[in-house]
Specification:
single chain, alpha/beta, six-stranded parallel beta sheet, four-stranded parallel beta sheet, 12 helices, 12 strands
């Protein structure tokens, strides 16, 4: 910077301000300095800058499985907003392991990251040791039990009611819910909403929930295999698209067709849902928007003078495709 200042005929402080795009430096001076920077190959020391600002310039997105099709759009939305505000994003893959969650969360305590975006539905206990921890964490998609933590999600109750009512309106009675792990508040809510909707339709005697320990294709496949060995439903409402797709595969192995023998509704509207054969009816979740809103909330939280944001609930909608296109 001394060399650049000497060449440009300005103070070092002017070079620093120009590189930070400060309005205190005229456009002509900025242009002259940036041209010299380009010629000399000068690179801003990001570590030194963040040290002066007492910030790491990074936020961590903590998610349970990097292999899940649900998360990429969420992360993309978070990353877009973070980069717009000069923050980098690092991914913490917990693999459903509380010890990994704690190890990753330590980066917040050590200052390696400035904030956490939790997609896991759980808050590592050691985070609460940090002063004003509620301003360093937000949740996306899945809330945590600590109500002081702000977040963005959809109305899972309303969405699952709509999905179940869709099958009832098609004339189905033997509707089974393939549920996600019930240690998750999100999947518990979806199962509870399915049960309530069936009761409201005077179908309480037809209710059945079969839980999968994972919410992926293999989990749905295994749950459907178990179900078909015991009974023959006419419709399935699954807690995730991947589970629905796995269950549809199991039906094919039993010689059943979709939607003629078994109709399906999923949840999430991942890219594979529309491309599958037959295309899957599902609940569309605005994942990228959800990620952008979550990142915006965290950055607002990290600004000491800013008011703490309120919780946000985004709209989800039923997308009807061929997998439920049958009438009983």
């Amino acid at each position: 910077m001394v060399d650049i200042a000497r060449t440009a005929g300005v103070d070092i402080s002017t070079v620093s301000r120009a590189l930070a795009n400060s309005p205190l430096v005229t456009e002509d001076t900025k242009e002259r300095i940036l041209k010299i920077v380009e010629q000399t190959g000068y690179v801003v020391n990001h570590g030194a800058r963040t040290l002066r600002a007492q910030r790491a310039g990074q936020i961590m997105v903590m998610l349970p499985s990097i292999a899940s099709s649900f998360f990429p759009e969420l992360v993309l939305g978070i990353e877009e907003v973070a980069q717009e505000h000069g923050f980098n994003v690092v991914i913490g893959n917990t693999q459903y392991d509380p010890q990994r969650e704690s190890a990753l969360a330590k980066q917040l305590l050590t200052g390696a990251v400035d904030g956490l975006v939790l997609l896991t539905g759980s808050l590592p206990p050691l985070v609460t040791e940090l002063e004003n921890y509620d301003r360093r964490v937000v949740t996306v998609s899945r809330r945590v039990s600590d109500r002081s933590i702000r977040g963005v999600c959809i109305d899972n109750d309303a969405a699952m009611r709509e999905a179940t009512r869709h099958l009832i309106q098609r004339g189905h009675r033997r509707i089974v819910h393939i549920a996600g792990p019930q240690n998750s508040p999100v999947f518990r809510t979806r199962a509870k909403s399915y049960n309530a909707t069936m009761r409201d339709a005077d179908l309480a005697g037809e209710r059945r929930v079969i839980e999968s320990i994972t919410y992926d294709i293999e989990g749905g496949y295994s749950a459907m295999q178990k179900l078909l060995a015991e009974t023959r439903p006419t419709a399935i409402v699954a807690a995730s698209d991947e589970m629905a797709i796995g269950a549809m595969r199991a039906c094919r192995e039993w010689g059943l067709t979709t939607p003629e023998d078994v109709a399906f509704v999923g949840f999430d509207d991942i890219a594979m849902a529309a491309a599958y054969d037959p295309p899957l009816t599902t609940i569309h979740i605005p994942r990228k928007e959800m990620g952008r809103v979550g990142a915006t909330m965290l950055l607002q939280n990290l600004t000491p003078q800013a008011q703490k944001p309120s919780n946000v609930t985004l709209d989800a909608k039923l997308v009807i495709r061929k997998s439920s296109d049958s009438v009983r």
